[in-house]
């Protein structure tokens, strides 16, 4: 994992230097839109509704439309004037009983790693939270946004979980529940018996994301079998003008063989024919070097167009 933030926890007069890491990741397979006719990538352009011209991201400001129809445009300088907590400090506001925090308030989770030669202060705060069975409420500023967060212990590691503000949780108001009949004692007894028969300790590793597994299998089978659903574009350019083609190894070797065959037909001397054959053999032995030389300008690759060999392995994501 790679840390996304460095700072310290302000625990009274004690400072606990820490590094922050994203504690969760998603394994969802990401798709992009293509033209159904030829498989070409669909791109979007930022166009001004007033002048009809394309607008660069650097020239875009944020605007708010009031209920009365008034539009307020704010710049980066305006946002810099807003109050924010110290960017590299996590101040502890108070300690509360853990059970008093409604789980619906929990949002994003982050691991905290000690960032000092001696983790004594880190261990002290961790042990104090365990002994008192309390959770620390803190202010956590990340990406210029300050959130209320819960600081607790999970498996010997300090964890910060950002909390939703109370007004971000909708009220559950359903009139149909107001006149709902009470459950009869016999029904409650039978339901309790069913619960007890299905009770077990929670082990999250026993459950799998069957949809993602089957979706990955569908994609891999489609690539392996080929057909009209597999499209290998010759090359595409992203909106910033960079070449975004990912070289397909099999296709690249096939084009090399075809090029070598044409060169042999048009050659007028045996030396030229021999040179072309040697070149083809060399490219087959070192496909990675050939792909790198052929697409040297492409510094950025598109994961969704990886080769068949790469797509057969699940993608790894970093923090």
Low-confidence stretches: 237-250, 284-319
Query: Whole-number radius of gyration?
Result: 29 Å
Estimated share of beta-strand residues: 15-25%
Structural class: alpha+beta
- Quaternary structure classification: single chain
N-to-C order of helices and strands: EEEEHEEHEEEHHHHHH
What fraction, in percent, of the residue positions are helical?
A: 25-40%
- Beta-strand segment tally: 9
Widest beta sheet: strand line-up: 1-2-6-9-8-7-5
Query: Judging from the principal axes of the Cα atoms, what is the shape?
Result: extended
Count of individual helical segments:
8
The pLDDT mean sits at 77
**How can the largest sheet be summarized?**
7 strands, mixed, barrel
N→C terminal distance: 5 Å
Produce a short descriptive summary.
This protein is α+β, with helices and mostly antiparallel strands and 319 residues long. The chain has helices spanning 76-80, 120-132, 185-197, 210-225, 249-266, 270-285, 287-294, 308-311, and strands at 5-11, 14-22, 62-65, 71-74, 89-97, 106-114, 134-142, 145-154, 157-163.
Notes on the protein architecture:
This protein is an alpha+beta fold and 319 residues long. The chain is built from eight helices and nine strands. A seven-stranded mixed β-barrel has the order 1-2-6-9-8-7-5. Strands 3-4 form a two-stranded antiparallel ribbon. Strand 3 (62-65) and strand 4 (71-74) form a beta hairpin. It is extended. The model is unreliable at 237-250 and 284-319 (pLDDT under 50).
